[in-house]
Structure formats: C-alpha cells, structure tokens
Protein: Cobalt ABC transporter permease
Amino acid sequence: MSPKLLAYIEKDSWIHRLTGSTKLLCFLMWSMTAMLSYDTRVLMVMLFLSYLMFKISRIDFKEIAFVFYFILAFLVINNLAVFLFSPYEGVHIYHTRHDLVKLIGPYTLTWEQLFYQFNMTLKYLTIIPIGLIFLATTHPSEFAASLNKIGVSYKIAYSVAIAMRYIPDIQRDFIEISQAQQARGIDLSRNEKLLKRLKNMGAILMPLVLTSLDRIETISYAMELRSFGKYKKRTFYSERPFRKQDGFALLGMGGLMILFLWITFSNGSRFYNPFL
Structure:
C-alpha cells in the first residue's frame, strides 16, 4: 500500500510553485469545461493535456496509483449502471439507431449508446488526473488559505484542510493496527477464506474508530483552547502572494476554457454527432 493516500507530495515543479488559489480556480474551470462538453474532439484534446500536466507535476504514478484504480473501479460500475437503467440514452441524444448486439430481454447494445458512454468515460478521465494533481501539489494549509481567499468561510476552509490531513493519518493507523493484529495471529492474507477475512477486519476497524475519535477530541480541545472561531476573519501562515506565473496559468486556462466551449457549442449543441 502506498505510504500516502490523497496527501500532499512535496516536489519541485512549476505546478507546485503556483498558489493554492490559482490551482483551485484552474481546477474548477477545467472541471466545468469537461462537464459541459460532450464533444469527442474537445475531450480527446483535454485528455492529452491532462496527462501532459500530470507529467509536468513530476508526480510518480505509483504514488497515486491506489486512488486512481479505486476511481476507475467506480467508473466501471457507473458505466454498467448507466447501461442497465438507460440502455437507449445514446439513441435519444443522437436521434439515430444502429444496433450492434442483441442482449437479453429489452437490452440491445447500440453504437449510439457505446459512443455516448465513451464520451462520458472521457469526461471522467480528463478530470481525474487534474484532480489528483491538485490534491497532490497543494498543501492542506495552503488549500485552506486558497478557499478562504475566494470567499469561503475560514471555518469551512479549515475543516476541509483538517480532513485532507486526516486521510494519511487514518491510513497510517490502519497499517499499524493491521500489523499489530497480524502479529497476534489474526490472518488477513489470501490464505483465509473471504468471509473469515472480513470477520477478522473487525479486529482492525474497532481500534481504528476509537483511535480516530480520540484524535478528533484532541484536535477539538486544541482548537477551543486557541479560541478558534472567535473572530470573523483570520490570516493563514501558508498563504502565498499572487505572482506572474499565476496570472499566466489563469489566463491560459481561461483561454482554453473559452476555446473548448466555443468548439463544443459551435454546432448548436454540446453533443458531437458522428451519426448524421
């Protein structure tokens, strides 16, 4: 298991040197563009650019592989659910029907449905790398400062920052408790049957919950002793000043957003239709 899970990974890259506010705004613009567009041409270009930015960030894939595969698993489940509950959504969108394979019952696989779900998958794959880059290159304290800078209450911003810090702590505690329980003879390996392994997991989850509750109580006492929430505003030690490279990043992302949305809606619809 990776030593870090959705945690800040310190590197020396151009993306790391951007302020948290800049990265947050760029991420929001990128996500909004990907969600609005169903133009395959735009999504393919965005997919290429997203993985190019991942390379620029210098984040090793193995450092975020667990999270990436976890999201992909949910993406597969989502695709299956879309086909199960709306097998002809593509037909309704593109106003044509080309049957590919007749399945059981009322289900027939069509080219339109495949193309629709292909575009839907592209949308997620363009956002996932950028989201992982944002989380891996932004320090939690700086993230809180960036949220507060764009108008979010510092109480909410600080809560989000604590949650981001808490994820690696939970993972570390899980590993330590798991190793301690295995040293006491509780087998969690593949040698045991699945049901037995699930039952043995209870010996880990209960201490993990109690440890988490104890940490929450400690943090709440520390914040209360420091009069957290007494004033309407506060400053952040990790907040960094806005620089030229931040302006270039925002202008570049804003320009890409306008260009991609113009291409998307140039034919009067946000759906690219190759079946006409």
